[in-house]
Amino acid sequence: MSDGFVRVATVTPETIVGDTVSNAQSIVEWADRAAGEGAQIIVFPELCITGYTCGELFFQDSLQRGAIAALRGIAENTRELDAIIFVGLPLRFKGHLRNVAAAVCHGRILGFVPKMNLPNYGEFYEARYFAPGPQYPETISLPNGEVPIGSTLIFSCESIQGIDIGVELCEDLWVPDSPSTHASMSGADIIVNLSASDELTGKASYRKQLIAMQSAKTYTSYLYASAGIGESTQDLVYSGHCLIAENGRILAETRPFTGNMAISEIDTEESLKRREQMNTFQEDYEYDLVPFRLSPVRVELSRQVDPHPFVPSDSSHLRARCEEILDIQAYGLRKRLAHTKAKTAVIGISGGLDSTLALLVTVRAFDILGLDRKNIIGVTMPGFGTTDRTYDNAVSMIRTLGATLREVDIRAAVRQHFIDIGQDQDKHDVTYENSQARERTQILMDIANKEGGLVIGTGDMSELALGWATYNGDHMSMYAVNCSVPKTLVRHLVSFYADYYGKENEELRKVLLDVLDTPVSPELLPPEEDGSIAQKTEDLVGPYELHDFYLYYMLRYGYSPEKIYFLAKNAFADLYDEETIRKWLKVFYRRFFAQQFKRSAIPDGPKVGTVALSPRGDLRMPSDASAAIWLQEIEDL
Known about the structure:
The protein has 637 residues and is of the alpha/beta class. It has helices spanning 20-36, 61-77, 171-174, 179-185, 203-218, 268-277, 318-340, 353-369, 388-400, 411-421, 430-451, 461-466, 487-501, 506-517, 537-541, 544-557, 561-571, 578-594, 596-599, 628-635; strands at residues 5-11, 41-43, 84-93, 96-105, 108-114, 138-142, 145-149, 153-157, 164-169, 190-195, 221-226, 243-246, 249-253, 261-267, 288-292, 344-348, 376-380, 404-407, 453-457, 479-480. A hairpin with a 2-residue loop joins strand 6 and strand 7. Helix 13 runs antiparallel to helix 14 (506-517).
């Protein structure tokens, strides 16, 4: 166990139908292998001790006795493994056969969970052999003592928080009211499913979607192991499809017919954190806990930690995702323009990423409304730090998109302001910088008043998180289309726009690509002697890809700095050393807490993802909260 992670495996051994001795041997060998790779939760298929396709042989005393003997042998021969293991077998209880999952750990048979929903349609005839239940725990006598049996059992690890395991079998997942739903509401963080799902055209894809969705709606990790090619092929074929899901994401799977084991790490803390935030996730206390113990161990992650959690990662749906985000922004602005009966939209265009995205969104909103793009007023406001590169890009973009260009040079007005307030023009301090930002905002507001329009905000969520905005300067607008779009996503959306829409407009594509290649800067300090940008934001506050990563895991899951640091080391192992990650993590927390007063006064804007900073929505945070305990945790790393 490391920072909430535990390694798990779902395994399909090659079953020999009816041969309980050989099957038990194979199960032990695969359990050894999985545990050797660090797995502490190991799941095998439904009826794997006998085979799922035994048919009338299930009624044979020899098979029933052989199954129990095999289970005892599996428990004994895995005694030294530090793992809880789930296997399937037929079990006689109160005069009827039950299709059960057995849990074993350190040589003990912990309990049995029976299948509750027995399919008896199409190719399935389970009701011919088995009875469902019992639902509520009873006991069954085995040579090693009394063992609980019931569908309302949760196997609870006493030594590691977050390992409370609910069990269901195959068809239990496919019914409207799945046992795993109730188990999760009763505290199960992990669901295991012992299955024997036959393979049909298209079924593997549907099965994968079903498991991902059940994992998502129950806020659990879902471990699924299905019967494989060793089953009888008299009428059906079984593919051995194994999957591991976590809160809606598929972490690992075997391709049907091609593998025996899926193995990965699951983050048990993620489920706990999601449930903390969901007040509609009601609790159910009808389940009984069966205790067991595992040793806490350090887990080296084999799973990939996405370094850019805000950015769409599914390339097959890339265009749809980007269009969806742009539509959320544009339709939000559309409503505000229509509601206020605004005649124009006024945007300060700097030639940087944020104002570029805001302009692209505004153009889309105007097109949706059927308005003339000439009523979009793009204002470029050269100041002391403006470079030819950004100025030329701003002018070119406004003209290429069919908006109206206005240029207001702010240098003379700012110099007069310096005289008025007694500011030394050669002193390049925060007053020098912020005076320019506020002058630009005043110009935009007054033009909007004059032209009956709205000032469209350009600042993004990453800047709001760090407080990298001038209070009542670029911090303020009349509608902020980028307010919940982090910098990494801004870059991605502009890149997408260049790739897809630039095909029809080469001049636009060219300028967008150059904007993407330009260092992020507010351009408030004079350029270098060669005319290049002197003030590079990421040199001052740190890489935005790190800050976006920190922001996502802090707000989405409430993770501690220690957990975020652990994840970041894995995500950015090839880009940043540990000291760099720790340095900027400290900067992030210090700035995030200190700058809340700015976020408490931000304008309206559309939420586009699961993380947002609106004081009216997702982030109700006091402006005077202390970061002391978070910063101390970073010092102790």
